[in-house]
Amino acid sequence: MRFGxxxxxxxxxxxxxxxxxxxxxxxxxxxxxxxxFRKNDPFTTTRAQCERARAVxxxxxxxxxxxxxxxxxxxxxxEGARGEAxxxxxxxxxxxxxxxxxxxxxxxxxxxxxxxxxxHPDNWTPSARRQLIRTLRECAPASExxxxxxxxxxxxxxxxxxxxxxxxxxxxxxxxxxRCDLDCANWITLETAFATGPAIDHMxxxxxxxxxxxxxKDSTIQDKLTIHIDACSPGTGTLDFxxxxxxxxxxDPSYPLIVExxxxxxxxxxxxxxxxxxxxxxxxxx
Length: 286
What we know:
Blueprint: E1 2-6, H1 19-27, E2 32-35, H2 47-59, E3 63-68, H3 79-99, E4 103-106, H4 126-146, E5 149-152, H5 163-173, E6 178-182, H6 196-207, E7 211-216, E8 218-221, E9 229-232, H7 241-251, E10 256-259, H8 267-281
Parallel strand pairs: 1-2, 1-10, 2-3, 3-4, 4-5, 5-6, 6-7, 7-10
Antiparallel strand pairs: 8-9
Helix pairs in contact: 2-3, 3-4, 4-5, 5-6, 6-7, 7-8
């Protein structure tokens, strides 16, 4: 198994990747990173910029497990807006290829004007699902051309609200390059918040070989009078990481599990927790 990290001190600009940062991340036990590079426009960032960052990471012994897909709406009913989203994903895949990234991470986006992960009733319509399938089919050739996985992240607030819907969408796209970036915490509900192991098993049972990577994010249900299930650093919530690591390892020991939901100050504890869990399970960490 391989552990990566995201957020924290990782820069929004690929030009700010340094040997010192790589050494620090390696010293904590992480073998790779997920960088969002929000300041690097996929249409204007140069190949030279990407190759410089790629060389620094390689020299520092770090893999670039994921970069962002820039969070555009892939389910937009306006054909012009949807077409622009396709172009953005295709550009993101090209940039990721230049960077030597294993994959990009993107959700389906949301009809909500407030953000790509926020709820909107039109997110869950059959029309949105058809739009998502169409968009992903148009992006799949760019994934193959650049040798980069289009790793699709799901959440109950957007079109991919369940493992079953995600499986059906990926079956319809039918590309080995368009896969699932599993984030178990995104599908934890009130019914499963205190017994997450069976829920995680169900996710793996449904999605199987569609999964190509995972996010290590914990979840916790808050003591409030409306339902609040928040993300938190691995080992600080109720997610059954023993089940998560066991099932991911069984899929492929080379797949990365990338820490999310952790602040920079929590990076060391998150790594220690994941290593301890892997050791208990007899899983080798690369």
